[in-house]
Design brief:
This protein is an alpha/beta fold and 352 residues long. Helices cover 51% and strands 11% of the residues. The strands form two sheets. A six-stranded parallel beta sheet has the order 1-8-5-4-2-3, sandwiched between helices. The longest helix is centred in the middle third of the chain and has 23 residues. Bound molecules: nicotinamide-adenine-dinucleotide (NAD). The site of nicotinamide-adenine-dinucleotide has 29 residues, from α4, β6, α5 and α9.
Length: 352
């Protein structure tokens, strides 16, 4: 066995149908009594309902969370937090809302309780991506990692099927990249394969019936494991490309991951087929890349960057920024091959 180091991130996880009813207990566990609840504008009603449910522990709702965690929004939320003398944060939602809670805790170290409602996995990572003056930067810090996460599958019944698919593939991308990054280790690789396997069986069942209880539980369980992998080990080409494309062309986060995954895997798999063989075998495919592509196509996932508004004229610029200050990758970044990768993703071609 190769040498490895493993450091576990300490997050308390409360999982189960109806687990949202434990919010009061979890806030008290912090020794807190004045929670500010965060959400996107879309989930404001849910946030307000939660505030009523836990009254008098909630002192307010800030429903201004938005994609890419703009620093201006964080400042606005921090002003409200202080004005209300709040003493903890409850983030109810997906990666955008969780990102806001993390950005606040990064600045004021408030304890965070996350009630996760997508499969993005951000709730179990000490990573924050935030945007200021149009530039997205990423920071890692202990204060960013939420202390407690509640996973209640019932809250994901309302996640539209299209988003369930792309968010689930976003989760898979964390795990699959975790199988070949430099910091990989036997524990995270075990979690990665279990996470991908849970999502592989759950996502088709959700497409068939969005209210399938077992499938919703399985997908949330899988997304937790995949998020833990992302938060424990590093990232490589796939996340770098998604970051570059998402940031430069303002693309939807989960769709970008879903489209690029088979292509980035095909690129890297050539260098480390043995590390991705368990994924190929899980999908009963010759290669992990073709297995992932066929799986995504079978779910009805978006396949073409072109459908997100990317055009051929963007690819040169994208290649240039992707290959400048690249993350480490098992197959080094060759500009001409990266350009080809992006061309394949633009057209949604099945990787060879
Ligand atoms: P999101 O949080 O932007 O949610 C998309 C939309 O779906 C929002 O309007 C939201 O309110 C709504 N929604 C969420 N859950 C719902 C539900 N159960 N039912 C109905 N609607 C629901 O999407 P996301 O993909 O979860 O998050 C994307 C963001 O997270 C990006 O900014 C990305 O950079 C970040 N992210 C960060 C990390 C990290 O570790 N730092 C990891 C993954 C993603």
């Amino acid at each position: 066995m190769r040498e490895f180091q493993y450091v576990a991130n300490a997050t308390r996880v409360v999982f189960g149908e109806g687990a949202v009813s434990k919010v009061i207990d979890e806030v008290r566990r912090f020794g807190a009594s004045r929670a500010l609840i965060l959400s996107t504008p879309f989930q404001r009603t849910d946030a307000e309902a939660l505030a009523q449910q836990i009254a008098p522990l909630a002192v307010g709702v800030f429903a201004g969370a938005t994609m890419h965690t703009p620093v201006d929004v964080t400042k606005e939320a921090l002003l409200l937090f202080d004005a209300l003398s709040a003493d903890c944060i409850i983030a109810l939602g997906g990666g955008s809302t969780i990102g806001l809670g993390k950005a606040m805790a990064y600045r004021n170290d408030a304890p965070q309780l996350v009630v996760a409602t997508t499969y993005a996995g951000s709730e179990v990572t000490p990573i924050l991506g935030q945007t200021e003056n149009g530039i997205k930067t990423t920071v890692r810090a202990a204060s960013i990692l939420p202390e407690t996460v509640i996973y209640d599958p019932v809250l994901t019944y309302s996640l539209p099927v299209e988003m369930s698919i792309t968010s689930g593939l976003n989760a898979m991308a964390h795990a699959i990249e975790g199988l070949y990054v430099q910091e990989r280790n036997p524990i995270t690789s075990m979690m990665a394969l279990e996470g991908v396997s849970a999502l592989k069986s759950s996502l088709p069942a959700i497409v068939a019936n969005p209210g399938d209880r077992e499938a919703r539980s399985g997908a949330l369980y899988g997304s937790w494991l995949c998020g833990v992998v992302l938060g424990t080990v590093g990232m490589a080409l796939h996340h770098k490309l998604c970051h570059v494309l998402g940031g430069s062309f303002n693309l939807p986060h989960a769709d970008t991951h879903a489209i690029l995954l088979p292509h980035t895997v095909a690129y890297t798999e050539k260098a480390i087929p043995e590390l991705l063989a368990p994924v190929a075998s899980l999908f009963a495919a010759k290669t992990a890349a073709s297995g992932l592509y066929d799986f995504a196509a079978g779910l009805g996932a978006p396949l073409r960057l072109r459908d997100l508004g990317v055009s051929e004229s963007n690819l040169e610029h994208a290649t240039q920024i992707a290959t400048t200050n690249p993350y480490w990758n098992p197959r080094p970044l060759e500009p001409a091959a990266i350009r080809d990768l992006l061309q394949g993703a633009l057209e949604g071609v099945r990787p060879a």
